[in-house]
Amino acid sequence: SIGEELLDSAGEVMLRIGERTDAGDTFFVQFVARTHDEAMQRIMEIGEMPLPPYITTALVDQSRYQTVFAHDQKSSAAPTAGLHFTPELLARIREAGVEIREVELVVGLDTFKPISVDNPLDHVIHTESYHVPAETLEACKRVKQSGGRVIAIGTTATRALESAATFGELHGRTNLFITPGYQWKVVDMMLTNFHMPRTTLLLMVESFIGVKWRAIYAEAIEQRYRMLSFGDAMLLYRGATAVSY
User: Fold this and answer.
1) Which of 40, 113, 131, 158 is most buried, taking the most CB atoms under 10 A from its CB?
2) Predicted TM-score (pTM) of this structure
3) Please, are residues 93 and 60 in contact by the beta-carbon 8 Å criterion?
4) Do residues 167 and 173 lie in contact, with contact meaning Cβ atoms separated by under 8 Å?
């Protein structure tokens, strides 16, 4: 209930329960700390890595669930397509002439929330905070104009880029729900892992390449590919002309 206090093992008040969010299935909490750094220290001392529910074994090395692109600790889950990259691989990619730019999208709880309504378009998607540096969006525009391709690493980077182009805002909170029929503006190719059934991520994939995703998944299942966070990845090519922005 609102105002309820949770104590740590020493009996000290650690946090207080706040109001429920607009979605109704989560709520705000207030850490009892004098500074932001103190609150973060308490989280690191007491908290655990927010692993997806299908990972049932604790990680001995928690850095395994962290990408080489990570900076600030904000997301409720790792953008797992990025787990395929190492500093050595990034160096080889740069040596091949590929320009690498970064974006930020704070992964929210919809990563785990299945679509439970009969019509997927009625699904209410959580908003997520994103930030796309101006130089990143300009680099995407420049490379497309020169006949190159923009390759997004994961659905999170994809949503950030498309949100910036769709809303005309480089940062903010996005409720962009990418479904079949969406007019793609930036991303030409996408590296992504294999996702859970009945998720918004599968709808994004179908919007990107059409119903051929079913054949790809059938092949993956037949060949016993690994699914989800620590699984295999696929490189998808949209192959259609993007609209300008």
Assistant:
1) 158
2) 0.82
3) no
4) no
